[in-house]
Amino acid sequence: MESQKQLSKRTQFFRVTSIGMVAHAIKTQGAGFIYRQVLPPLIMNSFIGSVLYTTYIFTLPVFHPAFTYQKSRTFPPPPFPAVFMAGALAGGAQSLIAAPMDSLKVKFQVQDLAHGGKHKSMSSFAVTTLKEMGVKTVYRGFALTLVKDSLACGLFFGVFEWVKQQGYYYFIDELYGIREDMEILKVKALMHVLPQDCLTPGHPGYARIGAAAAVAYQAVDYPLKQVKSIFYAKEAALQAETQRNAPAAHTQHLNSSSMRSGTSISSQLYSMTWQECRSQAQSSGGWRRFLYANFAWTAIRAVPAASVGFLVFELMKRKLDARRYESEDREMESYLDQMMAERDAERRAEWILAREMEERERIEGRGGGGGGDVRR
């Protein structure tokens, strides 16, 4: 009996997990659920992540030039302001893609509940929505997304690099016995005598680094996401109200003229969002309780993904760094071989020229000697 209860508890726990819910959806709706609901957001999130990390890699050298020459073990390490600025720019680039996707996702969920799933997939809904309402409408609330992603990603990368640097400095301190002067370490870096980074990918320290970065990210992302959810809820309510007042031909979407007057509608939505946030903060007992309700559980869930993400990021960065250095070494080796071949050719040409001159002088000397004998 007890074993059956334990089994039922495990089954219930499995059903509330992500894998359990996906398995249940496949069982009830078929394998097509994967292609309609799982693959599109998975591909889009992968693309957004690649934009984030690629932008960070290419913008960090602007604020910390030493990163240009060695990405894996940059010395001196990038300071927090440089990493924060690069991360903020990367977050801004990410928001250009994330903002319309979030808007379309919320609109699709509202449409699915209100109209019984007229569109079977988000891709078909996105095409129809963009065609009828225009691109401008899906960028409503972009300012919120830009602020959220810029600040959150700036802290995300900044905390990651800062915590990693503390581990590196501790490693050097333990290795040499004392904290060496920064100028001495810079000289050793130029002489290539610094030790390898102790926090290599796979080191347990990356889990702690990922945890710290995830908490820092959620500290900004979580409260602003609460505000953004209210913004989208107000937009959905305004859309429903407009649909009731619109002609029958436009019952599924806001009419074109109202949707394309984005500035006035956006300002109205921001005002409504602010009023709703103030009301909920008062009813919740303060802004902190309102913005950070259930924050701990969300931050804990974000830790594994952040740790794995940074692990893959470091692995790929080191691998690309190694390939770049190998390519540079091959180019240098080829250049040196070419220089040696040219030098050998020059030496051979000089040797041949010297032999020809010696032969000519010997011939001229013989000719001169024969003429003297004839005169005598």
From TrEMBL:
Ranges that cross the membrane: 42-60, 80-99, 141-160, 295-316
InterPro entries (UniProt xref): MCP_dom_sf, MCP_transmembrane, Mitochondrial_Carrier
Any one of the GO CC terms: mitochondrial membrane
Subcellular localization(s) per the UniProt record: Mitochondrion membrane
GO molecular function per UniProt: transmembrane transporter activity
Swiss-Prot/TrEMBL Solcar repeat ranges: 78-166
Nuclease as UniProt keyword: no
Main location: mitochondrion
Keywords on record: Membrane, Mitochondrion, Repeat, Transmembrane, Transmembrane helix, Transport
Membrane topology: Multi-pass membrane protein
Highest taxon, organism lineage: Eukaryota
Similarity comment: family membership: Belongs to the mitochondrial carrier (TC 2.A.29) family.
Name of the protein in its database record: Mitochondrial carrier
Organism: Linnemannia hyalina
High-level lineage: Eukaryota, Fungi, Fungi incertae sedis, Mucoromycota, Mortierellomycotina
